[in-house]
Design a protein that fits this description.
6 helices; 4-stranded mixed β-sheet; alpha+beta; 259 residues
Length: 259
């Protein structure tokens, strides 16, 4: 748990979870008079921005993360043994599509070989042949033997990618800004409001694992996690910092007009 202080109306938040931090950002933007149309926490809707800010009459979406090692969401991906390529599956298709692009670009031979070896093994002891993942209807005892023998170890691993995976993911949602607890306010690959904030830097860890579900069935799950040490001079959890940021925006606009 992270300790955070906010100056808005003397508000002090000692301990919080991600949803409480999102609520704090919305409250601080409201108190600063720059909140857009979002007035409550998004809940579990992955397609809705966490917050938004109104600048010069235009509204810009914001993704909010409680800390600099925050989860970026999870998704499912499929795999074709014949093509040796991953493809998006599941409900969170936006994130899955971005993850698929990263995994296909990595072209990790150990991962592909591990998936193929598992499919070969389950095909031999089941009543059907498996050429793609997700897989359905395999022998459950054979699955447990594969787990016990370490056959999933080449599959259940962690990969790293640069922050472009985040930029691409949120660009699909028309979101180009991120607020991170203890780190501040950043742009994501683009800066449509021309704010004096730095671009997000760092890396993304992709936690890949083959997970078994009912029926029986199994699919590849990927969890993305942000890792950054970047610091911004501005933060949206402090109304004074918001005021300073917008004052500098107005100064820059006056300079540009004079030029």
């Amino acid at each position: 748990m992270l300790k955070l202080s906010a100056s808005t109306k003397g508000l002090r938040l000692e301990l919080y979870n991600p949803k409480r931090y999102e609520a704090l950002i919305i409250k601080t933007l409201t108190a600063s008079g720059v909140r857009g149309s979002i007035h409550s926490v998004a809940g579990n809707d992955p397609n809705r921005p966490d917050a938004d800010i109104r600048i010069n009459g235009k509204i810009y979406n914001i993704e909010v993360k409680a800390d600099n090692h925050a989860q970026m969401g999870g998704g499912s991906v499929g795999y074709s043994r014949s093509d040796k390529r991953f493809f998006p599956t599941g409900q969170n298709k936006d994130l899955s599509q971005v993850v698929v692009s990263v995994l296909n670009d990595l072209n990790d031979s150990s991962l592909c070989r591990g998936l193929s070896t598992l499919m070969n093994y389950l095909s031999k002891v089941s009543d059907k042949k498996f050429n793609t993942i997700p897989m359905h209807g395999f022998n459950e005892r054979a699955w447990q033997q594969a787990v016990n023998s370490g056959m999933l170890l080449p599959i259940n691993r962690m990969f790293s990618s640069d922050v472009n995976i985040i930029n691409d993911h949120y660009a699909r949602k028309n979101t180009f800004y991120m607020q991170i607890g203890s780190a501040g306010f950043f742009s994501l690959g683009n800066n449509p409001a021309n704010l004096p904030v730095p671009p997000l830097t760092g890396k993304v860890q992709l936690e890949v694992r083959l997970a078994k579900a009912g029926k029986p069935s199994a699919g590849v799950r990927v969890q993305a996690r942000l890792v950054t040490n970047g610091k911004s001079p501005y933060t949206l959890d402090d109304s004074e910092s918001i005021k300073k940021m917008l004052t500098n925006v107005k100064k820059e606009q006056r300079v540009n007009k004079a030029a």
